[in-house]
Records
---
Amino acid sequence: MSGDDDRVAVTADGAWTDDVDSEEGVVVNWFAGEGGAVDEGESLCEVQVEKVSVDVEAPVAGTLDEIVLGEDDEFTIGDTVAWIDPE
Amino acid sequence: MAQQERDQAVDRELTMSRAMVEAIAHEMREDEEVFYMGEDVADYGGIFDSTEGLLDEFGHDRIMDVPISETAYVGAAVGAAQEGMRPIAELMFVDFFGVGMDQIYNQMAKNTYMSGGNVSVPMVLTAAVGGTYNDAAQHSQTLYGTFAHLPGMKVVVPSTAYEAKGLMHNAIRDDDPVVYLFHKRLMGIGWLPAPDGPKTPVPEEDYTIPFGSADVKREGSDVTIVTLGLHVHRALDAAEDLDDDGVDAEVIDLRTLVPLDTETVVESVRKTGRLVVVDEDYRSFGVTGEVVSRVADEALDDLEAVERVAVPDVPIPYSRPMENEVIPDGEDIKAAVEATE
């Protein structure tokens, strides 16, 4: 899916994944919209795993090209939630 | 509207809780006299995320968990405010105000008056309000009217993230006591999903929304719906439905009860002739009656029809269908509008 462009995947994982037992979570809130500019490290969305909320941050600066998993969508840890067109 | 123009310039959206926290953090960085205390506001971040993340930046000296004694910590906040600090004290649920009622009603609200103006009480009392999630009669009230009834305090009720931030900046900077009531259902918490609407674009920089300025959330010519908090969103839903039936409703978000922007409401009624007041507080001796009275005082001749939509005078039921029955929804608002025709 990512082979045909330079887009960078935003994935639902991070340092927090070691602290949870469940592999499944749900996307709760998006703070950025498709087509919007994002900074590296900016909170893009909030996900919830085992009733704990965690922010997913932008791995690079750029334009949020596509939101793959919207609010209320379920995910497995490591799933791609969005794609960023890097600057 | 001016707000829509601003929205277009901002990419980022925030939930209402994050917008509140951003304003508090900004004020705490600018003024070392600002601090926050309440039950579970430090390590837990507030059970409705009202202080999420503040402990990390400011530490336990300025984000303080307190024992379960509303009298003690509201009283401490009043004293600190009189000595020149700018405390924010949080009642976890507004329903708990009764425990510290003397501090709130007789000290916080009146000490400026009782001292002949020798002290001021620049504090903010924050509290979570509202039902819709089956927490029963002691954890689901709104009680806006209880605070608005009392001379001496300002009462603020945000409906969106944009309003939550601007009103919080204003509340903390105000030299008099302010009660800031946030609806749990609007905060954007994972386990308590918000309706569409309260998550809005929010500028990164600080800005204030003056107290006493209602916002026309939807312009219309046939009927005026006046409301606040969660019910702004329910009224907007009802207005969309009514639009399909050819009824053009104006929706006014009061944003603050004290001071109350009577002028905006009256102007709207002069245009539409029909008034529906919607509120999640109890029906009797409350917000709906007050708004109707003010319009009657100012513009009785323009008033062709009036309806009130509020919680009937019963404790909020625990049972889901019964709670849904007593808390007004979009259908109730629509029916009230139709009753004015």
---
Amino acid sequence: MANLAKAAQRTARLGEQRSIRSKLDYIHKNYFLYVLLAPALILTILFKYVPMYGAIIAFKDFSPLKGIWGSDWVGLKYFSKFLNSPNFTDIFFNTLKLSFYGLLLGFPVPILLAVMLNQIRKAGLKKNIQLVLYAPNFISVVVIVGMLFIFLSPTGPINQLIASVTGNPVIFMTEPEYFRSIYILSGIWQGAGWSSIIYVAALANVDPELHNAASLDGANLLQRIWHIDLPTIKPIMAIVFILAAGGIMSIGFEKAYLMQTSMNLPTSEIIPTYVYKVGLQSGNYAYSAAVGLFNSVINVVLLLTVNFIVKKLNEGEGLY
Amino acid sequence: MHVKHSNLDRFIISVNYILLGLAVLAIVVPLGYIVIASFMDPTVLLSKGLSFRISDWSVEGYRKILSNPAMLRGFANSVFYSTCFALISVTVSICAGYALSVNSLVGRNFFMTLFIITMFFSGGLIPTYLLVKNLGMLDTVWAILLPGAINVWDLILARTFFKGVPNELKEAANVDGASDWTIFFRIVLPLSKPIIFVIALYAFVGQWNSYFDAMIYLDNAQLHPLQLVLRSILIQNQTMPGMISDQLAMAELKRLSEMIKYSSIVISSLPLLVMYPFFQKYFEKGVMVGSLK
């Protein structure tokens, strides 16, 4: 990212020195580059920027007949409607809690796995373990949730075990109190292995001489991991953390939606599922867009805040 | 590694092996359970749990699944969507990535910013849905193939890759009188097989496993991908029309629907799980190129 910015600055400076005429000349001579760029540009403007413009319906009384531009402005009406709705506190904190706990529990596991994998010296064995650990990443979220319903059903294998000990099955998928744990633990089960790749790759670059030297100085394995391995992957940890924290309000909507039952709604209703329901299922486009926009704004604020904090803690190394 | 291990180190290493072994078990056991259960007579499964007696086994679930039109159609649709989506994604990101890797490109900074902004801001679900609707793409395959086709991450990946292609190659070809097009198609593209492969795999897997776009954009069941068919079986507990006739008793219905669940999980996940060990190194390569930027 830093290189990218520097390179961009350099070209910007070069660009200023060129006259408009020579720029046009360049474009004319290298038109093929712009032809190559065109599909990506068209798709991005159409499917990313037009919806950004479309988000103004959050401030309008949208009527499909009048279109986005023709509908009347209503200012912040729909935002205050959401903030004052009786559901607001529940939905808002459900979203925050689910993501915050998910980040807190899920972030360290891939790092731990990578450090553990890094200790395995037999290349073949390491590769086979990785093969197994990555596998759940290739299973679809529909199948994962389907498996949760199977394993956690009152007659499923886990309840057969529980019932043989306590006599009473636990009704996991319909109890609000279990939703978060199931969501987060199954997320770790599915994603931790795959997320560890990036750290495994970074750890492969640690100079073995460092370990040798530390070992001669009497450092034990844990001390060497703590003082040599972990500092090596610290910059990557910072980036992964910032990105995860920036997505804190938007994670896992598709899975949460599948895991919802009418009974677990008190904890499983989060802003994105709410947006889908009031918007696409009930047709309140403007209200739903306002809720969605509220969510995105919080996301961006979180991203900037976390980036700022990490930069302070990490000797000036942030995402940007 | 010449590091000498102390007793403490040897203890830590043993603990490490045990923990990793547990992690492996935590993944193998549930997946193994599903596979074994898919081959079992559901009556036995429900009453006794897993059994390893051949007489308790049955392939009825697979027979039902493989003879079900909705499932087969879903499978075919998914193959079609994933393949086309991968083709479009690769074309778009390779072309744009190459253009953006050329240092002298006028407006490069501007274009790059334009793309990167979309990684952080989006219009949201409702405005995107309204756009797709206004474009008349509801209930067409375009709603699945186009809106997600441009992935900025892939674009950065491609751009990083092309930056590593030595300039001398292009210059030499230029001296030999090759046009820009010839250079791109005859020299650069053949060199970029690894990155094409990585982006195609990511796009294919992503599309194969997704259900949400199809759920909001496609009403017509004829167009539904595999994941939507699975959703109705696994999560909404619907037995598919035509799969089980009305005359069957409730118990039989329950028996069959259990069976179908297991075998449909295996059938839908198997293609990727079987293929992925062969592609593992490419996936890893992709992650690493991406991480080093």
